[in-house]
Amino acid sequence: MARVLIVGAGLTGSLCAALLRKETPRPVHLAVWDEAGDSGGRMATARSPCNSQSTVDLGAQYITCTPHYAKKHQRFYDELLARGILKPLTSPIEGMVMKEGDCNFVAPQGLSSVIKHYLEESGAEVHCRRRVTQINLRNDKWEVSREAGPPEQFDIVVLTMPVPQILQLRGDITNLISECQRQQLKSVSYSSRYALGLFYEAGTKIDVPWAGQYITSNPCVRFISIDNKKRNIESPGVGPSLVVHTTVPFGVTHLEHSTEDVQELIFQQLESILPGLPQPVATKCQKWRYSQVTNAPGNARGQLTLHLEPVLVCGGDGFTQSNFDGCIASALCVLEALKNHI
């Protein structure tokens, strides 16, 4: 049985695992490693430490599906909608730019529930807080080392973490990547931003007429969402939750600052937009060093095969586009690249 390691428990990695389980001719042993404390990647959902039912989406806020992808990726949308993992976004989002035929979806349990669904479907061994440091070639297998614990060997490795993290890996992989491939990887660039989640006591009122709002006139704040309202979930026992996403220039300027200092700056700007906002009972500040892809290599076609025997493949939105359908497209391309090797 082939041992397959997928590095990165975001949308591409989790869907790759689910597709490999369903669509490969022979059974495989699947492992998914992620350096974060939970799965989700940039579709992360944070829970209030005071009430686990109070959540905020710290990454992606909602999913926009164009008519093209509604048809091309219909099976994925149909399944998630049928299971209630996604539902149409019906709450008002001020400043949202809508194109004709587009549909927007939210996840009632937070967008990380999409990732958790695919990981469950995959039956993979999922390990969080496993940061890969080295990849070496040993007896026609990949020996993968991590920060803590012994290295493990795999027949196939799929890297779905942000591309700059692939270039930071040590070991034989540094010599196995061709100069052409290295230039392709180096050409991938990302925007940076922060997200701040605020959790409130049950019964707290946030009196605004919208569920989400794009801000155009503030140097710090780009988007605000009342997350329970965005998902159309009202519960008397669960307080509201709010998330603020910063502008990219603010994120870049404050990238190396402490999250405590950044959180205070975001608070100040938020209060100027929503004066009289109640005090939260808990907060969660998230730095997105690799937020959205601003440049992807044009000839990568959803994946980049770095080595053939044994197989080492890269995937993720760095090889397509930074949205839900970009990740689906990449996962399908990775599956195609691996099919003949399992």
Describe the structure.
It is a single chain. Strand 11 and strand 12 form a beta hairpin. Helix 1 (11-23) runs parallel beside helix 4 (112-122) and helix 1 (11-23) packs across helix 11 (324-338). The protein has a six-stranded mixed sheet with strand order 9-2-1-13-22-21. It has a six-stranded mixed sheet with strand order 7-16-17-18-15-19. The model has no long low-confidence stretch (mean pLDDT 95). The chain contains eleven helices and 22 strands. The chain is α+β, with helices and mostly antiparallel strands and 342 residues long. 28% of the residues lie in helices and 28% in strands.
Largest sheet entry: 6 strands, mixed
Mean pLDDT: 95
C-alpha termini separation: 9 Å
- What is the percent of helical residues? 25-40%
Quickly give the structural class. Answer: alpha+beta
The assembly state of the depicted protein chains is: single chain
Tally the helices. 11
Query: Within the largest sheet, what's the order of strands?
Result: 9-2-1-13-22-21
Beta content: 25-35%
The count of DSSP E runs of length 2 or more, i.e. the number of strands, is 22
Write down the overall geometry: globular
Rg over C-alpha atoms, rounded to the nearest angstrom: 20 Å
